[in-house]
Each structure stands twice: as structure tokens, then as C-alpha cells.
Design goal:
The chain is an alpha+beta fold and about 375 residues long. The protein has an eight-stranded antiparallel beta sheet, with helices on both faces. Strands 10, 11, 14, 15, 16 and 19 form a six-stranded mixed beta sheet that branches. The longest helix has 29 residues. The radius of gyration is 31 Å and the shape is elongated. The chain starts with 7 loop residues before the first helix and ends with a helix.
């Protein structure tokens, strides 16, 4: 796979495949400050490693690794590419070359060999001589910047299904599938390896995460509020409350009535990334059974996780953007005006054709000829 430059598309596909795991002037949008403070930064921060090994897949690396901080791709490596994906990642590399050395050694020496051996073992165990097979690892840590609490995680997936998970509380392996029982029994005896993983993901990983947050503060700790719109395809379809351009992605949206969250007639859309690194999401409300005079009782609420501030948008028919134009929006005599306009257009076209004919040598008859 020479000359490829994996981007967000590969990253998204890589993540989704891991473990069988939607008139601004007229809109009455306002900020409700429950506390007199600005929107706070995200309460929890994460450092995640996504490692993938493959067998029988053409035009795809045998091994690749993606490093993410707060769901932003910070670094990538495979057999051809190694390096940061963000400017602040380059800063980390310049200030901590030892860490870069660790990542390089893991990417080119330890992990590719480990994944190759594991895939070979699993193929033999399950009598898989041919076909495509994928081994994946997701590991990392989470840090609560309010309480200081740290949690680590490490889990493997094989051919799109959960395979084995390390419980860092009991320091034992969990087998979600009977296929992994043999692996669990064997790995539970490797106490030194388990203790190393505990230290790696509950002590060392949080230190690296703090370092990333320090150097990438302007990007990772920023808060971008969304632009909120009310959208509707037709007058009878659901009203979609759409928020876009916000960061971070730890946010929620819901519909409320008289200040209470409602669930009936509400459909939540998937959160999606924008090309500029921000995010978008939507939540739909079925209004076909709601009298329009009661619409003002409904509000769309957007809130960042861990923040006290909310962006509340009132369900106002005048603020809804729609693809259809109701007859009431035509001015008085609008239909007659359209007909008159079409007639004038036809007359102008006829006059233009006559002018072109005269210009090309067709002349009107003389007086004597017309007699």
C-alpha cells in the first residue's frame, strides 16, 4: 500500500469495526446560565490506542496503530508511515524523544510480531486455513480532571467480535466468548504480565495523557459552542433540532416540554464529525399530533457533558427552515403575478427572434408589395 495517506476515513472505519459495537435572527435561541460561569472543559479526558493486525487482506497493512487523545487522532503508524497527525503532537515529539522511541519500538518491533503470532495461533485453534482474519486491540486510560480518578482498559477483538478483556480491578482476564476460555486460563497465570499492564494503563498512561493535554491545550481543552437550527422537510414531517460546529464531542441533546425532558415521539441521531474537527448531531421531534399553539411549550436543549450551561431553542414555527413553501407565503395576487410575468417573458422572446431574423437579411415587405 505504497503512497497512501490514511485520514479520518480510515480512522472511522478502523474504530467502527472494533468490537461489534444525528432566520437565525428569528430563532429564539438563548443561553440559560445555571451558574455564573462559562462553559467548562470536558470533565473526562481519554488516551486510546487502536491496534489492528490482519491476515489475508490485500491492499491493507499487516499492522497499523492509531493513537487518539479526546477522540482526535494524534499519531499513526504502519509499515510505511510513522509520526504525529497534529501540530502539538510534533511538539511532544520534540520535547520527549524517549516517548517517541517507545512508540517506534512498539510499532515496528514488538506489536507486529505479537499480533502475527496471535493470529496464527487463533487460526490454528479454530481450524481457519483461509480467508480474511482481523485481530484488534483497544487500550488506554481515562482521566477525570475534576476528581483525579484514573481508569485503564485493555481488550482484544477477533474477526469483529469481543474476544478477551482485562479486568484491572480483579487483575484477571474475562472471556466474553467460549472461544477465549483457553486464552483466559493461560493468560491468568502470567502474573508479571498482568501487573505490568496494570501499571502501564493506570500509572504511565495517565502521565502521557497529561503531557498531551499540556502541549495540545489550545486544541484539546477548547470549547466551541454549536450553531443550532430547526429543520423540517415538509410541514407534516418531524422537526429536527440540528447542532453543528461544536467541540468537544461529549455533549447531549434532548427535547423538553414545560422544562421536563420527554422521550415519546423523539428520535436521536448519530453524532458525526465535520471536516474541520468539530461535530454535529440532531434530535427529531414528531409534531404531527401537537397543536401548533402548544409548540412554544417545547424546547430543544444542548449541553456539554459536565457543563452547567445549556443552549435552549424554543420550538417556533417562524424559525423553522423547510424545503417547502406554503401557499400562505405567496403575496396577495401572487398567482396572477406569475402568469403576467410568464406572458411578458414570452413576448420578449418573440421580439428577440424577430430582431434576429431582420438582422440576418429577412426584411419586411415594401408598401407596394403589401398592396
Amino acid at each position: 500500500m505504497q503512497g497512501r495517506h490514511p485520514g479520518s476515513e480510515m480512522q472511522v472505519r478502523h474504530k467502527r469495526s472494533l468490537f461489534s459495537s444525528k432566520n437565525q435572527s428569528k430563532m429564539k435561541t438563548f443561553l440559560l446560565f445555571l451558574l455564573l460561569c462559562h462553559v467548562s472543559s470536558a470533565v473526562k479526558h481519554t488516551l486510546r490506542y487502536f491496534l489492528t493486525g490482519s491476515s489475508g487482506v490485500s491492499a491493507f497493512p499487516d499492522f497499523l496503530c492509531v493513537l487518539e487523545v479526546n477522540n482526535i487522532q494524534a499519531a499513526y503508524c504502519d509499515a510505511d508511515i510513522f509520526g504525529p497527525k497534529q501540530d502539538w503532537g510534533q511538539t511532544v515529539a520534540e520535547h520527549d524523544p524517549d516517548q517517541v522511541h517507545v512508540y517506534r519500538n512498539e510499532c515496528y518491533n514488538k506489536k507486529p510480531f505479537l499480533f502475527k503470532e496471535m493470529i496464527s495461533t487463533l487460526k490454528q485453534r479454530f481450524n481457519q486455513t483461509e480467508g480474511v482474519h482481523i485481530l484488534q486491540l483497544m487500550s488506554g486510560c481515562e482521566l477525570d480532571d475534576t476528581t483525579g480518578q484514573v481508569s485503564g482498559f485493555l481488550q482484544y477483538g477477533y474477526d469483529g467480535e469481543d474476544f478477551i478483556v482485562l479486568d484491572l480491578n480483579t487483575l484477571t482476564w474475562i472471556a466474553p466468548t467460549p472461544k477465549a476460555v483457553i486464552t483466559k486460563q493461560r493468560w491468568d497465570t502470567e502474573r508479571l504480565r498482568i501487573e505490568y499492564n496494570k501499571r502501564l494503563y493506570t500509572e504511565i498512561c495517565p502521565q502521557w495523557l497529561k503531557k498531551f493535554l499540556h502541549y495540545g491545550e489550545k486544541t484539546l481543552l477548547r470549547t466551541d459552542p454549536p450553531s443550532v437550527s430547526l429543520l423540517q422537510k415538509t410541514p407534516s414531517s418531524a422537526v429536527s433540532c440540528h447542532a453543528t460546529g461544536f467541540y468537544p464531542d461529549r455533549a447531549l441533546m434532548f427535547w423538553s416540554k414545560d422544562g421536563e425532558e420527554i422521550h415519546e415521539g423523539v428520535e436521536h441521531g448519530e453524532m458525526l464529525p465535520n471536516h474541520d474537527g468539530t461535530f454535529q448531531m440532531s434530535v427529531d421531534l414528531t409534531v404531527s399530533s401537537v397543536p401548533e399553539e402548544d409548540w412554544r411549550k417545547y424546547h430543544c436543549v444542548f449541553q456539554f457533558d459536565g457543563a452547567e450551561d445549556r443552549i435552549i431553542t424554543e420550538l417556533d414555527g417562524a424559525a423553522i427552515r423547510t424545503n417547502s413553501i406554503p401557499p400562505s407565503e405567496f403575496p396577495a395576487g401572487g398567482f396572477i403575478g406569475v402568469v403576467v410575468g410568464l406572458l411578458l417573458l414570452l413576448l420578449c422572446m418573440a421580439a428577440l427572434l424577430l430582431w434576429k431574423k431582420n438582422k440576418n437579411g429577412f426584411r419586411a415587405a415594401s408598401t407596394s408589395e403589401s398592396s
